[in-house]
Design goal:
InterPro entries: Aldolase_TIM (IPR013785), OxRdtase_FMN_N (IPR001155), Oye-like (IPR045247). Residues 1-21 are annotated as: Disordered. This is NADH:flavin oxidoreductase/NADH oxidase N-terminal domain-containing protein. The chain is an alpha/beta fold. Helices cover 31% and strands 13% of the residues. It is built from 12 helices and 12 strands. The strands form 3 sheets. The protein has an 8-stranded parallel β-sheet. A two-stranded antiparallel sheet has the order 1-2. The longest helix has 19 residues, at 211-229. It starts with a helix and ends in a 12-residue tail after the last helix.
Length: 400
C-alpha cells in the first residue's frame, strides 16, 4: 500500500508499556495458545459468488494474519440460505463451501495457527437480495429498522433450525478442518433476537416474558453443537451491551448473565464477549451492577475462559488481561490493517491505520491483503505457505 493510504485519519493506539501479559500461554478447550492476542471475526465479502465459496484471496488474507499458537476467529459464516445478509460472505451451509474453507484452514495451520468458524444466521437482519428473496425469520414478526419485515418462526421449525447449526458445525470440523466453531449469539442476529425481551414476544415455550423460554432455542443450539463436535471445540459469542440490529432487552445483565450461567456446566472452550463501549446503552433503572465484563465474569462465569472484544488498544488489552477481567483480547479493525499485529505489539511498534472504505469491497484485494508488514520475514513465510497449500482432495462428507 502507498504511504498516502497509510496516513492515519485519527490518532493510532499507543503501544503497551509492558505487553508481557498478552504473551502468556492460554488453554482454550483442547488447544494451547502461545499468546492472548486473538483475531476477531470480521465480515469482509471476498468469497466467490452467491454461494459464498472461500477462495485463494481469503487463504492469503488469513495466512498473513496467522501466528504460531495464535487464535483466529474467522468471519461469520452463514449456516443456511434464508439467514444470509450479504453475497460473498464465506458460507458453511454446503459441502462445497466447506471445501473452500479447507484451503484457508490449511494455510493457517501451516503457520502454526488455530482457527475457529463462526456459525451465523441473521434472522430478521437477513437480506432478501442475498437469501433468495425469502421472507426472513425471527422469533416474532417485529421488523428491525432498515431491514425487511420478517415472519415469526413456526413452532415446528425449531428442531430443523437447531439441526442446521449442528450440520454446519460438523462441516466446519469434518470437512473444512477448522479447530473450533464459535456460535454467533450476538449483534442482534437470530439467537440474540431470542434472548432479547423487546424482540422475542412469542407466547409459547420459545419466548415471551419468561427468560427461561427465551433461552430455550439458543441453549438447544449450544447443546446440540457441543454434542456434535465437543465442548472443547465450541465457543460462544455474546454482546450483552450491544444495540446493533435494533436489539434491546429490559435487563441486559440478568439476561446475558443468566444465559452464561446456563451454559457454564457444558464447559465450553470459551465465551467471547463484546465490551461496553461509548454509544451502547446503560443499565436500566434498578440495575445496580456495574456495566462491565468484570461484572459478568465475577457473578456469572468465574471459572471459564473469556475472550473480550471491543475497541481495544494494546494498553487496554494488557490492563484487561492483567486485571483478570478477560483471559484474551480480540482485535478487529487493527487486525485488518496490521497483519503482523502480534509482532507489532510484542515489539511496541506503531500500527498502520485502517481504512473503513475498503472493509466491504467485494472480491477486491485493496485494503485486504495489501497492508504493510513491519515483520519483514512474514511476507516470504506467507508466500511459501500458500505455495504449499494448494486445494486438497475433498474430505469425507458430514456424518449423521
Amino acid at each position: 500500500m502507498s504511504n498516502k493510504l497509510l496516513e492515519p485519519s485519527q490518532g493510532l493506539p499507543d503501544p503497551a508499556d509492558d505487553p508481557s501479559p498478552l504473551f502468556q500461554p492460554l488453554t482454550i478447550g483442547r488447544f494451547q495458545l502461545k499468546h492472548r492476542i486473538v483475531m476477531a471475526p470480521l465480515t469482509r465479502l471476498r468469497a466467490d459468488g452467491p454461494n459464498g465459496i472461500p477462495n485463494a484471496l481469503m487463504a492469503e488474507y488469513y495466512a498473513q494474519r496467522a501466528t504460531d499458537g495464535g487464535l483466529i476467529i474467522a468471519e461469520a459464516a452463514p449456516i443456511d440460505r434464508i439467514g444470509r445478509s450479504h453475497h460473498a460472505c464465506g458460507a458453511i451451509d454446503t459441502d462445497e463451501a466447506a471445501h473452500g474453507w479447507k484451503r484457508v484452514t490449511d494455510a493457517v495451520h501451516a503457520r502454526g495457527g488455530v482457527i475457529a468458524c463462526q456459525l451465523w444466521q441473521c434472522g430478521r437482519q437477513a437480506s432478501r437480495e442475498a437469501n433468495g428473496d425469502q421472507t426472513p425469520i425471527a422469533p416474532s414478526a417485529i421488523q428491525a429498522e432498515g431491514h425487511p419485515a420478517p415472519r415469526a418462526i413456526e413452532h415446528d421449525e425449531y428442531p430443523d433450525l437447531v439441526q442446521r447449526y449442528v450440520d454446519a458445525a460438523k462441516r466446519a470440523i469434518n470437512i473444512a478442518n477448522f479447530d473450533l466453531v464459535e456460535i454467533h449469539n450476538a449483534n442482534g442476529y437470530i439467537l440474540d433476537q431470542h434472548l432479547a425481551s423487546f424482540v422475542n414476544q412469542r407466547d409459547d415455550e420459545f419466548g415471551g416474558p419468561d427468560l427461561e423460554n427465551r433461552m430455550r432455542f439458543p441453549y438447544q443450539v449450544v447443546e446440540g453443537v457441543v454434542r456434535a463436535v465437543g465442548a472443547d471445540r465450541t465457543g460462544l459469542r455474546l454482546s450483552p451491551f450491544g444495540v446493533f440490529g435494533d436489539i434491546d432487552d429490559a435487563d441486559r445483565i440478568k439476561t446475558y448473565g443468566t444465559f452464561m450461567q446456563r451454559v457454564a456446566p457444558l464447559n465450553l472452550a470459551y465465551i467471547h464477549l463484546v465490551e461496553p463501549v461509548p454509544g451502547h446503552p446503560q443499565p436500566h433503572e434498578g440495575n445496580t451492577l456495574p456495566l462491565s465484563l468484570e461484572t459478568l465474569r465475577e457473578h456469572y462465569y468465574p471459572k471459564g475462559v473469556i475472550i473480550g472484544c471491543g475497541g481495544y488498544t494494546p494498553q487496554r488489552a494488557v490492563d484487561a488481561v492483567r486485571s483478570r477481567g478477560i483471559d484474551a483480547a480480540a482485535f478487529g479493525r487493527w487486525y485488518i490493517s496490521n497483519p503482523d499485529i502480534v509482532y507489532r505489539i510484542r515489539n511496541k511498534l506503531p500500527f498502520n491505520a485502517y481504512h473503513r472504505e475498503t472493509f466491504y469491497l467485494v472480491n477486491d484485494p485493496k485494503g485486504y491483503t495489501d497492508y504493510d508488514f513491519a515483520d519483514k520475514t512474514a511476507k516470504d513465510a506467507v508466500a511459501k505457505v500458500l505455495a504449499s497449500t494448494e486445494p486438497t482432495a475433498k474430505a469425507t462428507a458430514v456424518k449423521g
